[in-house]
Design goal:
About 70% of the residues lie in helices and about 0% in strands. The chain is built from nine helices and two strands. The chain has a two-stranded antiparallel sheet. Helix 3 packs across helix 6. It is globular. The mean pLDDT is about 85.
Length: about 260
């Protein structure tokens, strides 16, 4: 980034940048967000910029643009079959926070630590919490993009769709259903966004591996939740399941890292 931008108050940069982008999104003929969704995305983007800078911003923007793009794959066919996302894929506040709440909390944690409110003790079990929170941040979006891509590609192109708990064939779009096409697409998506996180310096190459593995674990566990519990509890909406999904991915990446550190000691 330009030294001039780096020297400007990050709050000012974040507000101006995201207000301009919000204005462009508002007048765009293709609505990726509802009006309320725009405001919530604006608030989220400011939080990410202020706490993680342009590096964290790049990750969340990559997720949003690619996730919105894959949602529209085969939209006409999915709408005809009644399995498309509501509002033709335009995201509301519930979608924004269902996808990004975990990442936002990780970013907020980094911001609090960097502000000096919390200092890790050298004897702490987590001597470098910033790096773990950054890993969890990238892993949460790696997980969500994998989930979104697997679901949307599976609904559009899945030739054989199986319920993850029984492996019995089910119609495309069934909660808890998986397909080979969707699973492979989800892995590719998780690799792509993890490399974005590595490219901007949030994680190292080993972190890329942990993000991809965590995303695979979390996405499959999310399918299990969808197949077993989602239809039984009215409060377990897709958005709530998405929060669990990203949280599992974030926690899994941290546990994988800590396990590896203890293994090589």
């Amino acid at each position: 980034m330009s030294p001039l931008i780096d020297s400007v108050n990050p709050w000012l940069v974040a507000v101006v940048l995201n207000t301009v982008l919000l204005g462009l999104a508002w007048i765009s003929p293709k609505k990726l967000l509802t009006p309320a969704g725009l405001f919530h995305a604006w608030f989220l983007a400011i939080l990410i910029w202020v706490t993680l800078g342009w590096q964290g911003y790049a990750v969340v923007m990559f997720y949003f643009l690619v996730g919105s793009g894959v949602t529209r794959i085969g939209m006409a066919q999915k709408e005809a079959e009644g399995i498309a996302e509501k509002r033709s894929g335009a995201r509301g506040p519930e979608n924004v926070w269902g996808s990004a709440l975990t990442g936002a909390l990780c970013a907020l944690g980094v911001g609090i630590i960097n502000s000096g409110f919390f200092v890790a003790s050298p004897q702490s079990l987590v001597p470098n919490p910033q790096s773990l929170l950054l890993l969890a941040y990238v892993a949460s979006f790696s997980t969500k993009l994998a989930d979104t891509t697997a679901s949307e590609v599976g609904k559009a192109y899945g030739k054989s769709t199986f319920l993850i708990t029984t492996l019995q064939p089910v119609p495309r779009g069934t909660e808890g259903a998986v397909s080979l096409e969707g699973t492979l697409a989800g892995i590719v998506a998780s690799v792509a966004i993890a490399f974005i996180g590595w490219g901007v310096g949030l994680i190292d190459l080993l972190g890329v591996a942990w993000c991809v593995l965590a995303a695979f674990i979390a996405t499959n566990l999310e399918s299990v939740i969808g197949a077993t519990f989602q239809s039984k509890y009215s409060w377990l909406t897709n958005e709530v399941v998405n929060i669990f999904n990203t949280l599992i991915g974030a926690i899994a990446s941290v546990l994988l890292t800590l396990t590896w550190i203890n293994f090589i000691k």
